[in-house]
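Need a sequence for this fold. Nothing fancy.
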C-alpha cells in the first residue's frame, strides 16, 4: 500500500503582492524561492516561500489577485496553517518579534501536544508557529542563513494543517486512502462541537499532520485574500504519482490526472467535503532554472510558458525581489 510522505506545500490567496512579499520575507524571514505565475491564469503572480532552497514540506505559496475580497471563514476550508520552529525558546523570540512588528498574535499556548503561537498575516490568514521541541517524524527544512531572522529561530517548514468540515468522517476516509491514520483527538476549540481528529502519515510528526475540525455551526467558506486555496501532499516521483491516479479512479474520486508543473508534477482532486487536495512530487525542485544564490529574484517561467514571456510580463505589476546587499 502506498502512503503520502507528508505535507508538500500550501497555496493561499493574497490581494497585494507587495504587502505579502514584505511580510513573509521581512517579518517572517522566509526566503522567496520562486517568483513565477499561476500557470492556469498567467495574469497572476505565484510566489513560493520556503526554507533555503524550497525543500518539499517547507513551501507556503500565494496566488496574487489584486482587488479580491476577503476570505469568509466556514466549513469546506483549510482554516489553519502552521509553520515549524526549532524550539520553545524560538517561540519566545517570536513573541518579541511579533510585538515589534505589531503582528496580531496570541501568547504561547499548548495545542495538540505542542507549544504554539497563533497569529495572523496582514490579510487575516490564520497562522500559527509550532515548536519542534518534542517533535519527531518527518524532518524539517533548513532556514536560510541570509534571512533577517537568526537561523536558530527561523521557520523550518510547514506544520499541521487544519481542515474545517461539516462531515468529518468523509474527510477522514479520504485521508486514510492517502495513507493517513488517526493518532488522537483533542477538545474542540468551540464549545458544543465535536473533538478535532488528528491524522498523521508516513513518519508522523508535525510535517505530516492534518487536523480535521468538525463544525456544525458554520456555513460554507468563501475563498478570498487571507484564505487557503489548496493543500498538497508529498509523493516520491512521477511513477508513484501515476499510480495514485489509478488509486483515485478506483475509489471513484474524480481528479485532474497528471499535471506538469515543471518544478514538480501534480494531480488534483476534491475530497468529499469539497476541499482541494493536490499530490505533488518531491522533485525536480526550484534550482532547475535558477542558481541557488539568486532564487526568486527574477520572474521564472517554465519552458512551456517562456515563448509568452513578453505578453505575460506586460500584464504583471513589477515587484522588486532582488536581494539587497
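Here you go.
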Amino acid at each position: 500500500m502506498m502512503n503520502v510522505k507528508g505535507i508538500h506545500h500550501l497555496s493561499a490567496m493574497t490581494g497585494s503582492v507587495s504587502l505579502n512579499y514584505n511580510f513573509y520575507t521581512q517579518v517572517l524571514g522566509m526566503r522567496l524561492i520562486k517568483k513565477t505565475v499561476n500557470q492556469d491564469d498567467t495574469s497572476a503572480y505565484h510566489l513560493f516561500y520556503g526554507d533555503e532552497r524550497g525543500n518539499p514540506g517547507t513551501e507556503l505559496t500565494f496566488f496574487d489577485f489584486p482587488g479580491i475580497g476577503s476570505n469568509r471563514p466556514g466549513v469546506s476550508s483549510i482554516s489553519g496553517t502552521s509553520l515549524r520552529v526549532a524550539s520553545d525558546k524560538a517561540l519566545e523570540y517570536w513573541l518579541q518579534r511579533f510585538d515589534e512588528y505589531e503582528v496580531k498574535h496570541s501568547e504561547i499556548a499548548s495545542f495538540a501536544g505542542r507549544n504554539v503561537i497563533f497569529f495572523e498575516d496582514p490579510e487575516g490568514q490564520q497562522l500559527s508557529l509550532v515548536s519542534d521541541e518534542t517533535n519527531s517524524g518527518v524532518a524539517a527544512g533548513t532556514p536560510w542563513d541570509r534571512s533577517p531572522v537568526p537561523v536558530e529561530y527561523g521557520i523550518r517548514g510547514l506544520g499541521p494543517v487544519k481542515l474545517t468540515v461539516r462531515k468529518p468522517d468523509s474527510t477522514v476516509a479520504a485521508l486514510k486512502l492517502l495513507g493517513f491514520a488517526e493518532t488522537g483527538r483533542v477538545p474542540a476549540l468551540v464549545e458544543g462541537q465535536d473533538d478535532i481528529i488528528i491524522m498523521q502519515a508516513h513518519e508522523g510528526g508535525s510535517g505530516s499532520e492534518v487536523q480535521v475540525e468538525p463544525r456544525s455551526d458554520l456555513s460554507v467558506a468563501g475563498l478570498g485574500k487571507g484564505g487557503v486555496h489548496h493543500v498538497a501532499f508529498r509523493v516520491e516521483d512521477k511513477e508513484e504519482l501515476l499510480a495514485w491516479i489509478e488509486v483515485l479512479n478506483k475509489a471513484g474520486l474524480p481528479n485532474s490526472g497528471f499535471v506538469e508543473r515543471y518544478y514538480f508534477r501534480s494531480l488534483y482532486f476534491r475530497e468529499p467535503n469539497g476541499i482541494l487536495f493536490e499530490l505533488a512530487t518531491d522533485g525536480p525542485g526550484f534550482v532547475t532554472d535558477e542558481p541557488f544564490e539568486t532564487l526568486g529574484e527574477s520572474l521564472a517561467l517554465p519552458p512551456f510558458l517562456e515563448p509568452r514571456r513578453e505578453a505575460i510580463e506586460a500584464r504583471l505589476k513589477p515587484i522588486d525581489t532582488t536581494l539587497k546587499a
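For context: The first strand starts at residue 7 and ends at 14.
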